[in-house]
Amino acid sequence: MGGSEDADDVRLDDLSRDALLARERELETSYKKFQAADLALDLTRGKPSPAQLDLSNDLLQLDDGYQSANGTDARNYGGLDGLAEAKALGAELLGVQTDGILVGGNSSLTLMYLYLTNAWVHGPAGTGSAWREGDTVRFLCPVPGYDRHFAILEDLGIEMLPVPMTDAGPDMDAVENQVSADPTIKGIWCVPKYSNPTGQVYSDETVDRLAAVATKAGPHFRIMWDNAYAVHDLDDAPPVLANVMKACRRHGTEDSVVQFASTSKVTWAGAGLSWMAGSNATLAHFRKHLQVATIGPDKINQLRHVRFLKDVDGVRAHMRKHAAILRPKFEMVVHHLDSALADTGMGSWTNPRGGYFLSFDARPGLASAIIGLAADAGVKLTPAGATFPYGRDPRDANIRLAPTFPELGELDQAMQVFVVCVQLASVRQRLAEAS
What we know:
By secondary structure, the protein is α/β, with parallel strands linked by helices. It has 2 domains: 12-52 and 316-434, Alpha-Beta Complex (Aspartate Aminotransferase, domain 1); 77-310, 3-Layer(aba) Sandwich (Aspartate Aminotransferase, domain 2), CATH 3.40.640.10. The chain is built from 13 helices and 13 strands. It has helices spanning 17-36, 50-54, 84-94, 108-121, 147-156, 172-181, 204-213, 244-251, 280-293, 299-309, 312-341, 367-376, 408-434, and strands spanning 41-43, 101-104, 138-143, 159-166, 169-170, 185-190, 222-226, 257-262, 274-277, 347-349, 358-362, 379-381, 398-401. The strands form 3 sheets. An 8-stranded mixed β-sheet has the order 2-9-8-7-6-3-4-5, sandwiched between helices. The chain has a 3-stranded antiparallel β-sheet with strand order 10-11-13, covered by helices on one side. Strand 6 (185-190), helix 7 (204-213) and strand 7 (222-226) form a beta-alpha-beta unit. The chain is globular. It starts with 16 loop residues before the first helix and ends with a helix.
């Protein structure tokens, strides 16, 4: 399917009105062809493709019975922390000790929600620390960021304060200034490796400064460290993320960080394992209330995951198979963006080395228009504003691109539509400005 895609090295702002009108007519012709093609393509969520899910089909073959290494019958009640071997696997992945981690069900988001709910109702440090006892509770949210993180805070009535992202992670000057001035700020969300959606990996300096933030913040400040993409590398020499727990111990702030990870995009997204790691005190306070909600996790699933993945080396070998599927998709997206939009002034984008998303910034005021045009041409994108608290992007510029689920041919079609929508919206905006 053809489209008007080739960048011509002429910046949008340099085009005359007549040239803009001619370009608009050309783009409208291409756009109408897409509309007539009756497409139904979806780039809204970062889901694994069926080919990725097939990589883990051997999970259904549980050999060697139902006994764990220490003789626990995985079919029965108990084991609030999870099986010892599942704890060991998570500890390797997150770089913590096995006594500093517990294993949950398929969703790390559930553990995050439970942790913050307990912090709100009961307090992260027990009696007298409940966040709800204060007049206002605020949380720092690096933006663009993850909409489901924001949804948890909104559900609990916690006020969200945006913090800009830099190439090294959150703007740490802004973080430190805000927590020093406002003791009602109780935490910060972090996706430290391949941030959702921008793809940054936090620098060593950023990790160290975050570890020290609790020394400047009000009481019971928490870093929600969602290491969702810890092993989701696209190349064989990936960037290395500094160990946040070691950094916190250097600063005496180990109670301030709570780490999360899962196999949601490693094995089966709907039937994996999740982990939560923290200091002994952090986990003790959490377990006190977790044991009211459950008698224990799904240990059969933990057992089959450990037997399937074995250890960190096994996880990394498995993730190389994922990378072979995902790398061409990310390259496809970047190819279309580079070919159509480089040096035109119509947008900028990230080219991450892992994770599940790319971030596109349109000209201010155009994200909603581009997403609307794409929808009318049969391509669904994440709603405008989703990467900001309360769904409000003050510049109406950021668009999250999720290339993982579609087949490569479908992604090719979707990106042809997307770049034409960007071009058409940009030209129309420039015409309106020039009139």
